[in-house]
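Suppose a colleague, Dr. K., hands you the sequence of a protein chain of 606 amino acids and asks what its three-dimensional shape might be. Before reaching for any lab equipment, you can write down a predicted structure in token form. Begin with the sequence itself:
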Amino acid sequence: MRLLAPIPPMHPYRTHTCGELRPAHAGREVRLSGWAHRKRDHGNLVFLDLRDHYGLTQCVIDTASPLFAEVEKVSPESVVTVTGTVVARSAETVNATLATGQVELQISAFNIESAADMLPMQVAGDAEYSEDLRLRYRFLDLRRDRLHANIVLRNQVIASIRRRMIEQGFMEFQTPILTASSPEGARDYLVPSRIHPGKFYALPQAPQQFKQLLMISGFDRYFQIAPCFRDEDARADRSPGEFYQLDLEMSYVTQDDVFAAVEPVLHGVFVEFAKGAPVTPTPFPRIPLAESMLRYGSDKPDLRNPILISDVTEAFRGSNFGLFARVVEKGAVVRAIPAPKAATRPRSFYDKLNDWAKAEGMGGLGYAVFADNEVRGPIAKNLEPARLEAIRTASGVAAGDAVFFVCAPKAEAAKFAGAVRTRLGQELELIEANVFKFCWVTDFPMYERDPDTGKIEFSHNPFSMPQGGLEALTSKDPPDILAFQYDIVCNGVELSSGAIRNHRPDIMYKAFEIAGYSAADVEARFGGMLSAFKFGAPPHGGSAPGIDRIVMLLAGEPNIREVVAFPMNQQAEDLLMGAPAPVDPARLRDVHIRVEMPKAKEPRGS
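The predicted structure, expressed as tokens, is then:
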């Protein structure tokens, strides 16, 4: 007599996921668990859509079942376990938008694992809610399709990046979270030391010094999906508090070597997740910062916009258009921003742009219209034909185009001309959609002069190698010294800053001296790295593309908080966990801290 193997008991929660069932499962008894997503009562039938991480399955029960009343009254987002038989849907009831849409589950057993209270926001549907409500109940927000998909995409992007880096021979390291304060350009988050009264750790703004120390330690190629902490204000493309970046460093490399390592990773990730949208082929274009500020009015140019800005200062110097001519003699510049095919636009188009410019704090926005046989507009009336021809040639406009003008000091002119370029690109619908356009911006200045104090400051990264090395530091005016610094930009979003590092102590002392740091200051702040430099440091460089911004672009989201699982709000508050929050005085005494609240401002007129 042959003994049959016992039939194993069914799993208590699920035999399949809610995204798994197909026609091949028809006739099988299965068990699913998930959230009660949506319920539809058809009188003698109730349809319950059951949702988990993997998808959604339609379940059905009729009035003949003793479980009907229990299913009918279940509240949305309750967690339930459903057992039943898989049946094929009839042709007219197939839901082609669902992966499981060819089948449904006829309920034979039903259990509520966790009943949900009345919801502060609905998970099913596409209703819009305030950001504060969404962040306070982020666990509900994350159940919604769009946000859930964004976080899954984030996981997939990070996994792809990690694989591509390892395939290139990079090794993954973890660097300290508790470290020393560093002049990275933003405020540190400080952590008081209990066992060292009056002393503080800082959360790293970036693993800058540690990744350089890894190169000095002989590891050659490092990377990390690194958390970074900066006490700065929120923006659409930057979270307050913390963010993540693909931090990488390489030894014995030039700037070109870094580009050659980063480009295949970013290009490959974007091709993988761009859903067929074109991605700039490698090598990516390289644009010196000075050219970027002139031609695009930005240090992060959006190459989807075909408009190019030009310098037409000389066309106005000494001209009869006194408004510009007078300020040009005082050092201002004039930028021309073409508006292709705008000659036929009504006067209201130009008036609207002029009003916008005034709202932006400018005096207005002058323009000239290049029609077939004439040049129209208030500026054109005051310029001789030769000057108009010079403008036409410099700006590249043709008959049927218009050109707008910005006249201001150089930095102000660049910034506003860039804003006009973007506005015209939007108004004229010139910005290419569904495409990812990359470029490198190179040759950043090592230093800048504070316009108020005249003090020389680092403009980008204090650990960068100046172009020309020590000789440049000793022979050039500081604002004229360029560094081996570079950013990578996609669709007008800066993804990364990077540099070839300063690996020589003599150059480092001099570089910091120019910015006002004494040798003692440098040794106190960077003693560990300086000591390492003195024992043989290889030339090295790296970059750090932002993970959050990469995912934001791939997800097509305008705000970085849509691709971060638990972000803070714009006031750097975690509404879900209630941070920041007061701390018990006893705990503060333990770390030798006394809180002094800022004095309330006196009412005006008192």
